[in-house]
Amino acid sequence: MVMKRLLLGAAALALSAGMAQAQYSDNKVKIGILTDLSGTYSDLAGKGTIVAAQMAIDDFGGKLNGQPIELISADHQNKADIASGIARKWYDTEGVDAIAELVTTAAAIAVREVSKEKGKIDLVSGAASTPLTNDKCSATGFHWTYDTYAMAVGTGDAVVKNGGKTWFFLTADYAFGHNLQAQTERVVKANGGTVKGSVKHPFPNADFSSFLLQAQASGAQIIGLANAGADTINAIKQAKEFGITQGGQQLAGLLVFITDVHSLGLENAQGMMLTTGFYWDMDDQTRAWSKRWSEKMGGGKMPSMVHAGTYSQVLHYLKAAAAAKTDDGVKVADEMRKLPISDFFAKNGKIRADGRMVHDMYLAQVKKPSESKGPWDYYKIVRTIPGDEAYQPLSESTCPLVKK
Amino acid sequence: MNAVIISSRQKPFVLALLGLGLVLPFAIYPVFLMKGLCFGLFAAAFNLLLGYVGLLSFGHAMFFGWSAYITAHAAKEWGLTPELAILAGVALATLLGLVVGWLAIRRQGIYFAMITLALAQLMYFVAVQAPFTHGEDGIQGVPRGRLFGLIDLGDTLTMYYFVFAVFVASLLFLYRVVNSPFGQILKAIRDNEPRAISLGYEVTRYKLIAFVISAAFAGLAGSLKSLVFQLASLADVNWHISGEVVLMTLLGGVGTVLGPTVGGFLVVAIQDYFAGIGSLVIIIQGIIFVVCVLLFRSGMIGVLTPWLKRRGING
Q1: Which among A12, A307, B117, B233 is most buried, taking Cβ atoms within 10 Å?
Q2: CATH number, domain at A261?
């Protein structure tokens, strides 16, 4: 009798061990953070996203249904080929189940292709372009924090409604810049504004003088900056040196992160309208999280929306993997679409068929130096843009996964 | 052909290397090996110019990258089988090599390097602007397809053996070129151009042929890479690649047959295995380069050459 029970027990144990193996490959859940650790975007994404992902894992408890959760990271140097190579290696040899963050559109699309082929999950936070949820969409791919469509809806709309009817674009000459300009042009025209012209500058660029002079000569009220990071910062600083802003023309940064405002200083950035998916000083929850993040980063910094978005996406992935009781990409992706998202980053987020995580966006204005009460006190939130208004309607999506 | 170019004393050495190439994918991640083979072949093609004709081209990324683009486009948009897609890429690289070579070999030394660099930059900006390259995003999700319509290259191991076979054949071809009367003349031009002219050789024609062969094999390497990674991007046409291939060739050993391959593997390994530490990769690469230049000026294989020679093996 005792023998029989022992045997039964052993069999049950063997079975459960076998099942655990079937559910979680290599008996662990492994998340990779692939980001820019050394280049133009290392400030707005970079190391801070690794810290954010680790916080999500710690807050989740470090284990998923008894399986340890591991985190690895690498620098894709903003290059598609390096990103694709690392993603392939991670999936093939490291047992990585999901890759998160992925700043720079080219790198994000490269990883998207590999993930799609391998049936693994990619979570995009830092990259901006809308093709990720249109023709490049995937059943296991998600776009989390923001996109160019939302930026245009927020900033473009607000600027036109404030009287900025005539526009001239200064555009970074690569896929992201073209995408951002096209999205903004659409919003400007829909609101009765006109586009007087545009000029493309190389990416990255340091000397904007000739481009700014063209913008000045156009006589447009608004100079739209369809670029990001260091390019935006340089363009704004140089516009001030040329006296363009003092001459009555206004600059509209179409993608500005809080780290950019910090680099510019309030003196240079004051009054600017921008759209963001997250601001650290919104409520108690955001302040508490940001303070924790800041301490882990060694203090003196506040998170950008990319950092907060990375935390949110990793946490949601873990929740879905726990609910689905597996790390199989397709099954977890289905579960992710079912579960609502509610954390300090997204209060009422939901994931659509095209992989877009829809959440509220915020239109903010940069404070005057006199209004700012302390370090990183930079934004006045002007308006909350409901998620359904901020993001491209599903009916316009060219994603093949969307049933029409 | 074996009898012509590989002596009986070299045979065991060559066979051992071949055997190593066949079993290695079971020990090391095959995609990494394929990347090494692609860059090794690229460096070997580059070495034909630098090592045997003494021409420092600073624009080889244009052949590598453009061939990658054409192959990727042909495989993805036109639906060609991989061997035809590769041929299309190599054909373009050869044509480019002919035009660029014809222009550049009229000058020597730094001027030659500058002309190749300028033309490569020109082709880089064409790639930035041309709609079919998809700018910064590159051509992504290139299908590997079926070789001759039969063999599915989607399997990593199959792909590896295909790349390995192409690599070995190419290296044998380059070895044959170098050890032919044609190769002798190239070396003569490298060592003393006026003398080669006075002996009645049409130096420019030899240089042009060498340039075109080098461009074609650089293109072949690029084509293979675009199929391995299923991606052709701006990084492949960027001048960084032109610089990296110089680095690979110098690290491995200029003017040796195996040196550039070793250098290629070394640089790829540094980039791959140290990717986790971020920006330090470039610094480490720089330090290794400085150390190599100071300690073994003739490159890794170059240092081994006397030892190999004693055993009757030509490095």
Answers
A1: A307
A2: 3.40.50.2300
